[in-house]
Amino acid sequence: MEIVNSFLKSSPTSLLMLMALHIANILNYSPHYESLDIDPYRNVFIRFAFHEFEPDESIAINDMRNYSGPFSIQVFDSELNLISETAFEANQYHPFDYFITENGIYLSINHPLNHKNKEDEMNFELLKFEEITP
After folding, report:
1. Which of 29, 44, 51, 127 could link 105 by a cystine bridge, Cβ 3.0 to 4.6 Å?
2. How many CA atoms lie within 13 A of 105 on its CB side?
């Protein structure tokens, strides 16, 4: 986006917009981890890991957060050893909306691009922990 000004060859505003877009791309499309969260019912830690995915140039900066890429939920034991990781598809869940109970993790399916989403309801999918024996 170029803003024309008769006194400046390039507008500081356009530079700030480009920087904001670059930062938004890094924050939304680069792989990263969220904080560890404790599951006191199973004595484990969980962490969301966001996978890298290609930016969609047609998406406005303000809407980027609604286009979440694929992610995983990682489970760690009390010594912080990774014991499992489950991957989830892009744009089906809101990985920032979850809560932990005795039954497992309730993960929001209220993602704007999920066809199951009902805007007048809060809906969650229960993810149960199952012990895997070798």
Report:
1. 127
2. 25
